[in-house]
Amino acid sequence: MSLWFTETENSNLALQYNVNKVLAHKQTKYQELIVVDTDRFGRTLILDGAVQTTVADEYVYHEMIAHVPLFTHPNPEKVLIIGGGDGGTVRETLKHKSVKEVHLVEIDPDVVAVAKEYLPEISCGLSDPRVIIQHTDGIKYVADHEDEYDVIIIDSSDPVGPAVGLFREEFYADVNRALKDDGILVAQTESPWLNVDIMMPEIYQGIKASFPITRMYLCYIPTYPCGMWSFTLGSKKYDPLEVDPSQIIDLGYRYYTPELHHASFALPQFIKELIGEADKK
After folding, report:
1. 270: helix, coil or strand?
2. Fold (topology level) of 58-275
3. Residue of 155, 239, 250, 279 with catalytic role
4. Catalytic site includes residue 250
5. What are 240-263's pLDDT values in tens digits?
6. Across residues 13-20, what is the average pLDDT?
């Protein structure tokens, strides 16, 4: 008998994975949580029917969401990560020697517990003494802090369920206040192909409303719908395009490179048009 997991994107598209074994399946307080072992991508975390990360390709997402802002900031010492209970973004953030504190705000404690049990390669940084984990609402947490963080990373799931408020303009305004005067935000901002109605231009423009420097960049993740995935960086002072590639040291990357730091910001014309940046040089 063959067992398959189907991730339904919409009425016209679905992705299927051949499953060797179901390792965990539970309804948490916030969402349905599943961990399966797949043929091609290994152990896979699924939340509310959507693949979040796999041991085979997780490094693409986690390297790009972490290292782009952390190398854009000249001295990131205190970092806040909203979501990301699997620990991959924490792991990459801790590679930067300047980082003294990482605050992980993950609303669902079951995500962290399951990641520690079934995804040790990804969650290995969660036990580092520099990491403080809080299981609370990221929206409220950000609103209660001001002028505290050098970098804030929004490592959220899709804008449904508990994550929906993390994609709103008022939330990005609160993030701006929680950052120091030269702080940087980066958020995952969905697929340019499948999430046009929620990502473009509303999310991008929502970040742009609070940050004088706003730039979108791309990477390619096999297990994310249609492969192409976007991030949006908002900065109060530092432009990621002005980073000197020679200052990007080798921290053992598998995807991110000094050349890719700049190249990832080169957007296809259709994306420029979607986010309203087509006429800008």
Report:
1. helix
2. Rossmann fold (3.40.50)
3. 155
4. no
5. 999 999 999 999 999 999 999 999
6. 92
